[in-house]
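Troubleshooting: if your tokenizer reports a length mismatch, compare your output against this known-good record of 140 residues.
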Amino acid sequence: MLANIVFNEVITIPSERKSVKLIEPILCELYNTLNIHKDLYYDLLITCSEAVNNAIIHGNKCSADKSVKFEVCAHDDVIEIIVKDEGDGFDPNEVSNPLDEENLFKSSGRGLFLIRELSDMTNIISNSRGTTVNFVFEIK
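Known-good structure output:
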């Protein structure tokens, strides 16, 4: 049986770089509602910002006719984040490792790495209709 849903918010975000700031009030409300630890809040802020930025820039290519779906669903023991773009998709296994020597000083390329490292579970589904990044944090 699934745990009770204690927080749920879904928004549609325009594909503009400045739109990433729209997620912060939602995460702040989540922080206040669930009284989660500050470290978890900052991990959520980093991973959600990275996922939404990736969706806007790499997925939707900042196209005005595309949007990003951002969903936060918290249960008693986990917080689930879903970020979906309307791009052409990509192969997540083809993303360069930012820890490889040739990538260490690049100014980008760390988003998926951070999401995978900071969250407790990450799942990426990508095809020609877009990419969905789903990641989960355990509430401790």
